[in-house]
Specification:
Strand order of the largest sheet: 3-2-1-4-5-6-9-7-8
Number of strands: 9
Number of domains: 1
Largest sheet: 9 strands, mixed
Helix content: 40-55%
Oligomer: single chain
Bound molecules: beta-D-ribofuranose, calcium ion
Number of helices: 14
CATH topology: Inosine-uridine Nucleoside N-ribohydrolase, Chain A
Distance between the termini: 30 Å
């Protein structure tokens, strides 16, 4: 099988950790690099966490440092990451500290790495984004011609009918709406898949499933379930959900196997815009049904609204914990 050339842009983050380890283990990906952006935690912690996950997975992959703040804040010369909250706990991985090998840290910036890689592989690179879109936006500002040669983007963010950071805005897109705007401006030339809260909300992991990973998933399963302890606390306290939603994993799993969603789950060639001002800053406005008034707006996105959640979990177990598939099906499905 010819491997697909992949770059993952991420802000690890507990659900990023699930997503990254799964992508690292997927044999169909030729992972060219991991680019890091501030988001769930500040850039330094996010970099450490990405390095720790690369070492844990024992893969040979470089990690590229990216933006420490949003486009707007960078223009103002702001230093600090403005987003951090306690959702992902101490250090960003629910208090779990991973061993790192700094030889995996590159001197090249995330944006430059993305540009160079796309230049060398026109029409072949797929980007999976699991955090704010600042690194991609910086690459587009620097070299829009090259960035039009990206093959596909799989982006966790946004929501058609819901928000989680504000009433109407999802965290990743809320963190840098100007960057989202810039990225979707490529959408008529580059296939951009939005995997937002509408679909991730259908995929919660149960407490039983997390327990299963802890008991049967070896070192990786134990560490992931340990990270998720913090997350499940937040889900109960904030949303009265037992278990938790591993948003970023959904984007990676759909990128791995789009057939976990049916044709009717997927809205192709729709117009997507993002609010950049006022109370609804960060909200995605998605014209799922082709309103007549918007007919001249660019068809710049494919938006996912549904998923076969059982197939999603089964495929995840297969990819990350291959030998647990039978046990999972017997006791958890
Ligand atoms: C997104 O925000 C972050 O908290 C998660 O890592 C995910 O990327 C979900 O809204
Ligand atoms: Ca994330």
């Amino acid at each position: 099988m010819k491997k697909r050339k992949i770059i993952i842009d991420t802000d690890p983050g507990i659900d990023d950790a699930f997503a990254l380890l799964t992508a690292f283990n997927y044999q169909g990906f030729d992972l060219l690099g991991v680019t890091v952006v501030a988001g769930n935690t500040g850039l330094d912690s996010a970099l450490n966490n990405a390095l720790g996950l690369v070492k844990l997975a024992e893969i040979d992959c470089q990690v590229y440092p990216g933006a420490h703040s949003s486009l707007k804040n960078l223009q103002k010369g702001a230093e600090a990451n403005p987003y951090s909250s306690n959702t992902h706990g101490e250090g960003g991985l629910g208090g779990v500290v991973l061993e790192v090998d700094r030889r995996h840290l590159s001197n090249t910036s995330a944006a430059d790495f993305i540009i160079e890689t796309v230049k060398d592989n026109p029409g072949q690179i797929e980007l999976i984004t699991l955090g704010p879109l600042t690194n991609l936006a910086l690459a587009i500002q620097k070299d829009p011609v090259t960035m039009r040669k990206v093959k596909k983007i799989w982006s966790m963010g946004g929501g058609v009918q819901r928000g989680n950071r504000t009433v109407v805005a999802e965290f990743n897109y809320w963190a840098d709406p100007e960057a989202v705007d810039l990225v979707y401006s490529l959408g008529e030339e580059v296939e951009i898949n939005m995997i937002g809260l509408d679909v991730t909300a259908q995929t919660s992991f149960t407490i039983n499933e997390l327990f299963f990973l802890k008991k049967e998933g070896g070192k990786i399963g134990r560490l992931l379930s340990q990270m998720a302890e913090q997350y499940t606390e937040v889900y109960w306290d904030r949303f009265r959900i037992t278990g938790c939603i591993i948003h970023d994993l959904v984007a990676v799993m759909i990128a791995i196997d789009p057939t976990i969603c049916s044709e009717s789950d997927r809205y192709q060639n729709v117009n997507l815009r993002i609010e950049t001002a006022g109370l609804s800053r960060g909200q995605t406005l998605v014209d799922l049904y082709g309103h007549r008034d918007l007919k001249d707006y660019p068809k710049n996105a494919t938006v996912y609204m549904g998923i076969d959640h059982k197939k999603y979990k089964q495929r995840f177990i297969e990819v990350l914990f291959n030998d647990l598939s039978d046990l999972y099906q017997k006791y958890l499905l």
